[in-house]
Write a structure and sequence with these properties.
The complex is a heterodimer. Helix content of chain A is 37%, strand content 10%. By secondary structure, chain A is an alpha/beta fold. The chains are: A alpha/beta, B mainly beta. The interface between A and B is medium-sized, with 22 and 23 residues.
């Protein structure tokens, strides 16, 4: 064990790095902020009936999730409202303070994806997209929207992707990794086809409350368990995309696993390759070793980064995955935020650092 | 080393803290049940401002189904990732041997004595009627 340094210089980071943050959470001050972007019919529905999700108690936050609003205690805007709801404060507290050149917005709520009423889901997603564009992306060109889609109604989701591609302001399609079925299933393919057609990667940020447990062993007891259930969840996402043949069918599809870690990926690939060599007759739609699809199609964001006792171990894992697939993210304003100055402790070459902290995301999202 | 007057004693109520700057360094001064402790305002993990952290108790258990609370108001939880530190020592609860926040000595001094010096009063007005917190750094 090494001794932690206690007093670090505030300018320890390489100042010339042009950072891209692949996971920033904007937040509504209240649901009413969406109403100007909704038809009267859906405003009244929202007020009279509200959401009806696949999972009971969803979004009621049964526990405060460690820190109020799941957020850094210093991220509450001085002018009021929840963390992430004030663009000016987000600029000064995060974008300017950390030298973020580009930030990918990841709206978590309302997602529409968990709504049983599909027409309401589509209205919520469209309003959320217009809100992102008008209130965040237009006034702040460093920010780039993520298209919210009602993915359980793929035809409506495709229409929304097309609409957002026309209006501009968006860099990717958001697809929660926990949908009603694993995301590689055929019912969702038209969504991926539309994403490819319009040149959007598909971002899968941890989330979705479809009613099934977050772990393969059942519902977790503690938030501590749930917090790292992201990792087995993302493994299921990857194997679903691979074995359903989505990557084989859509060679241009790129997916980004957001907030799901990455250290597990090499071990998953080793196991998938081994099993595929023996059982590939079961999946003739997958003619190449699974690891090849993963290498070609899957990107990972870093936060919350794995922290082995010896930082060099993380470097080895990144070598196995490929530096060109790892993209820095902070998760601002959430409590498990990674600070770009200190979070990444493994040694990197200048080229690797430039790729992970910005170059990879610039290329993938076609950022200036 | 020099001594710096940073607050009046009654400015920081038990259970609360004050952020002060000494020689350009941010320091969080805590009142734990009438005793004062000063910690460097940066978490050793990723540099979060510790003065924004919650002051909590120690909860422990010998076996599932039992628990005990102790040391109420003596632990500081980092406002970002929740690392817990002993306000009295600055040590990390989970990794006390290797991880700690730098601690500074705080003394309570009557204004009468301070007015004579040789302390660094900076811009802090000192009145002989009050007691003050003095940090050595």
């Amino acid at each position: 064990m090494s001794t932690n340094t206690l007093e670090r210089s505030a300018v320890a980071a390489k100042p010339k790095l042009s950072l891209v943050d692949c996971d920033i959470h904007p937040n509504l001050k209240s649901e009413a902020e969406l109403f100007p972007f909704m038809e009267r019919r859906w405003v009244e529905h929202a007020q009279q009936f509200g959401p009806n999700n696949h999972q009971g108690l969803a979004y009621t936050l049964q526990h405060p999730r460690f820190q109020p609003a799941v957020s850094r205690a210093d991220a509450w805007p001085p002018g009021g409202g929840p963390p992430g709801s004030d663009l000016d404060f987000l600029r000064s507290h995060h974008l300017d303070a950390h030298g973020i050149a580009h930030g990918l917005l990841m709206l978590l709520r309302p997602t529409g994806c968990d709504e049983r009423n599909l027409d309401f889901a589509a209205a919520l997603c469209a309003a959320a997209n217009d809100w992102q564009r008008e209130c965040w992306v237009k006034p702040e060109p460093r920010l780039h929207g993520g298209i919210m889609i009602p993915q359980e109604d793929p035809a409506a989701a495709v229409k929304e992707i097309e609409r957002c591609a026309r209006t501009g302001g968006f860099a990717q399609v958001n697809f929660p990794p926990r949908a009603l079925e694993p995301p590689g299933r055929r019912r969702y393919w038209s969504i991926y086809e539309a994403a490819v057609h319009h040149g959007f990667p598909v971002g899968l940020h941890v989330g979705g409350v479809p009613g099934h447990p977050t772990t393969g062993a059942g519902m977790p007891t503690y938030y501590l368990q749930e917090h790292h259930s992201n990792m087995p969840g993302m493994q299921a996402v990857v194997s679903s995309f691979v074995f359903e043949g989505v990557f084989e069918r859509l060679p241009e599809l790129r997916i980004v696993l957001i907030e799901g870690g990455f250290a597990w990926s090499p071990a998953l690939c080793w196991r998938m390759d081994r099993a595929w060599r023996l059982m590939r007759a079961e999946v003739p739609q997958v003619p190449r070793p699974p690891s090849e699809y993963v290498r070609d199609h899957v990107y990972y964001t870093t936060q919350p980064i794995e922290e082995p006792d010896d930082p060099a171990h993380l470097g080895e894992i990144i070598d196995w995955i490929g530096h060109e697939r790892i993209m820095f993210s902070t998760d601002y304003p959430h409590w498990d935020f990674d600070d770009p100055r200190y979070a990444f402790r493994t040694k990197l070459t200048e080229a690797q650092r430039a790729a992970i902290f910005g170059g990879n995301a610039r290329a993938l999202y076609r950022l200036p | 080393m020099s001594r710096h007057i940073v607050a009046t004693v009654d400015e920081i109520a038990p259970g609360s803290s004050k952020l002060v700057t000494v020689k350009g360094r941010e320091i969080a001064v805590f009142n734990v049940k009438g005793e004062f402790f000063a910690l460097f305002n940066r978490c050793p993990h990723e540099g979060a401002p510790l003065c924004k952290g919650q002051v909590v108790s120690l909860v422990e258990s010998d076996e599932p189904g039992t628990y005990r609370m102790s040391r109420q108001g003596e632990l500081l939880r980092c406002p970002w990732h929740g690392w817990e530190f002993d306000i009295r020592t600055g040590q990390s609860y989970c990794d006390p041997a290797n991880t700690w926040v730098r601690k500074f000595a705080v003394a309570v001094e009557p204004g009468e004595r301070l007015a004579k010096g040789p302390y660094v009063a900076e811009t802090f007005p000192v009145s002989v009627e009050q007691d003050y917190l003095v940090i050595e750094m």
